[in-house]
Amino acid sequence: MAEVKQVRHHTESEEVIDRARDFWTRNGRTILIVCGAVILLGGGYLAYKYLVKEPQEQKASEAIFKAMDYFQRDSLKQALNGDGQYPGFEKVISQYGSTKPGNLAKYCAGTIYLKMGDLNKAVKYLSDFHTDSKPVQSRAYKLLADAYADQGKTSDALSNYKKAAKEFEDDEANASEYLFLAANYADQVVNNKKEAIDLYKELKQKFPRSQYALDADKYLARAGVYNVD
Predict the structure, then answer these.
(1) DSSP string computed for 27-88
(2) Nearest residue to 67 via CA among 76, 58, 57, 55
């Protein structure tokens, strides 16, 4: 009986081995290709990270340094175009636009062009700027809204004022201001009284102690609205 069990076990083991061999025969090439691709992708990512991305970030940080200095000193033309020795934001964006300093350069360039009244370039750079920093992103939405408003693009302007207000509501001072701008813009420019009332109400509910909430009372009273609950 023990010999029968041993033979049966040996037979079952051989069947398992045969199935494994058959599976490998049918799929071995595919498995090797997939494994090779994973190794290549992983190696490619590491090579890109350490040989391309990080050096690019370093070069971009060095390139933007002087432009940021000019920006902080309000020397706007030098900040944008450089001074002949150091590059300005335009060149930083052109060469390192995909890096973090290049992204920051888009925000700064957009801000400068808005001040200069070049609305198309202001919109171009501010709309292409994105950051995980909620206070900065909120400010960027507000500036983009200003640019759209000056262009007469009312829908885009109102949308971005609302984005600015919602992006970082923990900052009551700025968030209440941006929400008031959205409400006032809807009221005075878009002439959408219903949306304006809704935004003024939202302002009073979210930031009841802010100065803008007090200002909202005047506009709501003018519209005949006294109950904001």
Answers:
(1) HHHHHHHHHHHHHHHHHHHHHIIIIIIHHHHHHHHHHHHHHHHHHHTT-HHHHHH--SSS--
(2) 76
Radius of gyration of the chain (CA): 30
Q: What is the pLDDT of residues 158-174, one digit of tens each?
A: 999 999 999 999 999 99
How many whole angstroms separate alpha carbon 177 and alpha carbon 188? 16
> Residue 196 corresponds to which tokens in the numbers above?
């304006």
Instruction: Give the torsion sign (CA, 174, 176, 177, 179).
Output: positive
The 3-class SS string of 92-123 reads: HHHHHCCCHHHHHHHHHHHHHHHHHCCHHHHH
The pTM of the full predicted model, rounded to 2 decimals, is 0.77
